[in-house]
Design brief:
427 residues; Spore Coat Polysaccharide Biosynthesis Protein SpsA, Chain A; 2 domains; seven-stranded mixed β-sheet; three-stranded mixed β-sheet; 15 helices
Length: 427
């Protein structure tokens, strides 16, 4: 067959129709693929899901980065054994079972230039007697009674203020009675503060012993870390302020100039409010984790954990403002969305819905659950030194914490208030 005849045969209508029916569409290089309406109908519903999943993965990774980038302060060689006088002030209410470990830790300090004032805040369990039993090991120890609580003062603020008014030190170190200071605590924080920091707060290693503590405290501490990132707390240009009452070192002259705990006397979150007024006044504020210098077990089981977190949830929500609400929403989405995706996929399958969408929801949900558990596990290991496998229950713990917070807010709004150590907080 000649080339002319072959060309004519290829151009015949019958052959063109066959080629059109049986050959695949040809994509010209440099052009974008063309989707038909049916293909777009499958893709478009997944776009919001893909966007949300991407955001969640970013947040999971962000939590790991925050945990590993937290400034750390630890023991080291060459720390001073003497220097400016430090007054250690310990407000204590019904802490007979735990204050002994705190005072024993202070008796072993490598830094020797300090005095200790224990302020007994109307305890009924013999706290003052336990404290006085350490007089031989701590010659500079003084135990004082807080006296009658004034009507417009929160109990801890009153006790701290009583200690501050009797202090002689250049630095005031406020410690909770349940913390266990390691040998170089005072030396390390005084050396770190030096001449440039006016208020320094050290976050202790929190021991998680009971099931309730391991479930609920990691998401609670994670939420606090998201609301108050230390890189912003330590930035003088940022308004974000944070301090934890378990360990606050403040320059006495600054404390006096600002009115100390008297300036925050009604506050349940006196540590946070004290940090806020210090930073607002232009003084230098810094925070760091100090797991090798200070340890604490915050609660000893479900009852005290529920009581303490309900009190903190109400005060924290009101103190944190919009940022607190946004970070709470963020944590809620991270915990709830992956499991809701898995549940939604099963509902679609049972009700005869879109099988492709159900498969995408199931796959995406399981993937997010896995990534979230892995990331939270790494953060838990870093912060609490327990197994990262507890990250798998982080979402469940978050739900428990939010339930406690909601219950606390209902109690306050109904006028019943929340209780902590035998005192009622109604606002």
């Amino acid at each position: 067959m000649s080339l002319r005849r072959r060309a004519g045969w290829l151009r015949s209508p019958e052959m063109c129709e066959q080629v059109h029916e049986h050959s695949a569409p040809v994509r010209v290089e440099g052009t974008l693929p063309v989707f038909n309406g049916q293909q777009l109908g499958h893709v478009l519903p997944l776009l919001p899901l893909i966007a949300l999943s991407t955001l969640l993965v970013f947040w999971y990774l962000q939590d790991v980065v925050v945990a590993f980038r937290t400034p750390m302060l630890g023991p080291r060689s060459g720390l001073p054994v003497s220097g400016p006088l430090v007054t250690v002030i310990i407000p204590a209410r019904n802490e007979a079972a735990r204050i002994g470990a705190c005072l024993a830790g202070l008796a072993q300090q490598s830094y020797r230039q300090f005095e200790v004032i224990v302020v007994d805040d109307d305890s009924s369990d013999g706290t003052a007697e336990v404290a006085r039993s350490f007089a031989a090991r701590l010659p500079s120890l003084t135990v004082r009674a807080a006296g009658t609580l004034p009507r417009d003062w929160a109990g801890k603020c009153w006790a701290c203020w009583q200690g501050g008014t009797h202090a002689r030190g250049e630095w005031l170190l406020f410690l909770d009675a349940d913390v266990v200071p390691r040998r170089q605590l005072i030396a390390a924080i005084v050396a770190h503060a030096g001449e440039r920091v006016d208020l320094f707060t050290a976050v202790p290693l929190i021991h998680l012993t009971s099931l309730a503590e391991r479930l609920v405290l990691p998401p609670f501490i994670g939420l606090i870390s998201a609301i108050y990132p230390f890189e912003r707390v330590n930035d003088p240009r940022s308004p974000v302020a944070f301090a934890i009452g378990q360990c606050i070192l403040v320059r006495r002259s600054v404390y006096a100039a600002l009115g100390g705990h008297r300036a925050v006397r009604r506050s349940v979150l006196e540590d946070m409010d004290l940090a806020r007024i210090v930073k607002q006044a232009g003084y230098r504020l810094e925070a760091a984790a100090a797991p090798d210098l200070l340890e604490v077990r915050m609660y000893n089981g479900w009852a005290t954990l529920a009581e303490g977190l309900k009190k903190n949830a109400v005060a924290g929500y009101r103190s944190g403002g919009t940022r607190s609400g946004l970070m709470g929403l963020r944590l809620g989405l991270m915990a709830a969305v992956p499991w809701n995706m898995v549940i939604a996929s099963q509902v679609l399958l049972v009700t005869g819905g879109d099988a492709a969408l159900a498969e995408a929801l199931a796959l995406g949900g399981i993937l997010l659950v896995t990534i979230g558990a892995a990331c939270w596990g790494l953060a838990i290991r870093r912060r609490f030194r327990v197994s990262p496998l507890w990250g798998a229950l982080y979402g469940f713990g978050t739900a428990i914490y939010f339930a406690l917070a909601a219950q606390a807010l209902r109690q306050v709004r109904s006028g019943r208030g929340v209780q902590w150590k035998g005192r009622m907080f109604t606002r």
